[in-house]
Write a structure and sequence with these properties.
By secondary structure, this protein is α+β, with helices and mostly antiparallel strands. The protein contains 3 helices and 9 strands, in the order ββββαβββαββα.
Length: about 170
C-alpha cells in the first residue's frame, strides 16, 4: 500500500509559550486539491489499534520530529490534535516562532488508505478508513481551507482551553 499525504483544514485553537497547541489536523467533508474527501469514522480503527504513537513532524520529514502528540481523537468535526512542540529542538523552536507569527498556517497528515470509494459524479475519492502515521506542520497544505485561524501566545492555556470547549459545545451543539 502506498502512503498518502493530504492536507485538510486546520484550526489551531491556541499556542502557548511552552509549545503546547491544539487544533484540527483533518476536517471532514472537504475536498482537497488531490480530490480526496475524508469521511467521518476514517480514523477510528487506526487510532484504536495503534501500537506506536502518531508522530508530529515538520513538513512530512520523517527525520524531523518536532514534538509529541498529547491527545488525538476523532470528533464530529474532524481529527482533533493537542501537542507540544519540543522547544529544545531547533526545528520545533523555528516552527513555534513561525506559528506565532502566522507564517505557517497549515497541518497535513500522512496515512495509508485502507478503504475508499469513488464518487464519479463529483470526481472525488472518499476516504472511509485510513491508517494514520503522522501529523505535520506544513507551509503549503493541499487544501486551501487548511489555515491556522487563531494563534494565541499566553500562559492561560487551561482557561483558554475550557473557554473553547464551552464555546464549541454551546455554539455547535
Amino acid at each position: 500500500m502506498e502512503k498518502q499525504r493530504s492536507a485538510f483544514a486546520l484550526e489551531i485553537k491556541s499556542l502557548s509559550e511552552d509549545g503546547r497547541f491544539a487544533g484540527y489536523a483533518s476536517v471532514f467533508d472537504l475536498t482537497d486539491t488531490q480530490r480526496d474527501v475524508m469521511r467521518k469514522g476514517a480514523f477510528l480503527q487506526s487510532l484504536a489499534q495503534r501500537k506506536y504513537p502518531v508522530q508530529l513532524l515538520w513538513q512530512h520529514q520523517w527525520e524531523s520530529p518536532i514534538g509529541v502528540i498529547r491527545q488525538l481523537f476523532e470528533d464530529k468535526h474532524g481529527l482533533y490534535v493537542e501537542g507540544t512542540l519540543l522547544l529544545d529542538v531547533a526545528r520545533a523552536k523555528e516552527a513555534h516562532a513561525l506559528l506565532k507569527a502566522g507564517a505557517i498556517r497549515g497541518m497535513s497528515i500522512g496515512y495509508t488508505v485502507k478503504r475508499a470509494r469513488r464518487d464519479m459524479d463529483r470526481g472525488v475519492r472518499e476516504l472511509l478508513e485510513v491508517e494514520l502515521w503522522e501529523v505535520s506542520l506544513v507551509t503549503l497544505p493541499a487544501n486551501e481551507a487548511a489555515q491556522v485561524t487563531v494563534v494565541k501566545s499566553h500562559d492561560s492555556w487551561m482557561a483558554l482551553n475550557r473557554a473553547l470547549v464551552w464555546a464549541e459545545r454551546t455554539l455547535l451543539g
